[in-house]
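Fold it.
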Amino acid sequence: MPMARKEPLAPQMRCAIYTRKSTSNRLDIEVNTLQTQREVCQAYIKCQAHRNWIEVDHPYDDGGFSGGDLERPALKRLLDDIEAGRVDMLVVYKIDRLSRSLADFVRLLDVLEKYGVGFVSVTQTFDTSDSMGRLVLNILLTFAQFERELASDRTRDKKAALLKRGLFTGGTPPFGYTLAKGGRLIVDRQHGPIVQEIYARYPNETASELMRDLKARGCRTPSFVTRAGRVRGGWPIYLSRINAIITNPIYTGFIEHRGDWIPAQVEPLISRQQWDLVQEVRRARFPNPRDPSRNILLGILHDEQGRRMRCQSGQGQARGRYYKSEHTSWTHNGVTRRVMVGADRVEELTLSSLKAFLIDRVQLKEAIMSLGRYSEEIARHLKTGGRAAHRIDMMPRDQLRPLLLALVPRAEVTGSHLKLHVCCFELQNFLAWDGIGVFQKSAIKPRTAADRIYTISAAASLICGHKRLALPIAPFHSLDASPKPWLVDVLRKADKLRRLTLANRTKTVSELARESKLGPTQFAQFLRVNYLAPDIQAAIVDGTQPDTMTTWDLLSGPMPLDWEQQRQLFGFR
């Protein structure tokens, strides 16, 4: 009898289980929501054993994280493993455990499709391989997002109703008050006089002097026990606490809500005249660093990591305005430092780069042609470029911000460049602008034109240095390395020609090359060797450079100005 042929096994599917819980309550009990979700998903994977499904060893549990965004540590680890090819199938208990935002969920599906990873919701059976399955998926996700927004609306309406009655809406009571039964605030007899003292002394003393005096007297914030049994408070009164006290209108008997002052059911600690005096002194000492008319790049400037950069004033010797990237959840561990640039320098470079772009007919033509404009329209716009650059020069500072918001919706600072992303549609409108009034962003624009962006790149080192910044030149102790004399000679000759050029600024390159018995091309090739990174030059002198490096690489090969690109090009690790 012929032997029965075995069916080939299906390819192994590595399944990752993702679980999420919105709050961190009751996560420490033996059986919690995350564990329940995982057990249901594990049972489903076991039912698919005939399809060769197996569970991966790494747990992806997000306890205490909302589904309204993607800032979740376990989800980020899951996406990293998907990109690394360690996951073939994503299994969740319900769709809203993965995301409650339709836009975020579509983005996640795009990532899964890009890397060939399947998606299964255990309690909501559907197949994303056909159009009907995708329709059902979008409907379910839309209702999940509607439920989240409905809960937010209810919470916001309740808070607004409490505020209109002048009641405290919850949270930690302000310093100087304590929470009584019924949710009302009463004056704390121990800390209330400290608030009155701060308001009385602030017009004549700085916040730092007040902090040092209160700290020396042993004044501390009230301590309390949380529902979880943890002790909080009891800290010294720092500058942040003093600033919070002098900017909270509740001490005058009012609660601020969306710019309106609502009378609160609380005993005031200071008079309105004291409040106005302190605010006047505070504004004189610290002008608002987030004033859009003063900080024209606020909301436009980002760092190369994509973080928005806020404006702040320096302290001590570093007085001045700075744009500094804000902290995000993935930078709290300190691995990715925040970037800081001088506000005056970056604003001046932005305006000068924009004016140079308007004068440069080649770049201006490329930007206009991206809109599908040709022949007469291009010639007409090119003629107005110089006039548009002159208008920027003549604009007062309060008109520059609406102009930049329209022309440059996004700017990015890197270690060596400032990149301006110019909206070509608004550029066309600015070139045709008659100069009357204030140039504003167009309210209506075609969808196709809205996507046309032209990038201007200005080479400049704007990022403020850090005192721990150092070049990667390690001490050299080995006696085995032997420098290659022909490479060292190239460095010496390059330095000699550099000094010769600086000492004879009145002579042309051809004349200097003739004196050095070199051709103009060879003279320029030696000069560019001086742009090598310092650690590469040190390695050539020490003899620790890669064995594959030759004089042709230094003189005739490609030579990027970026030092990190040079290290990669020449084989340095």
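Residues 485-570 form one domain.
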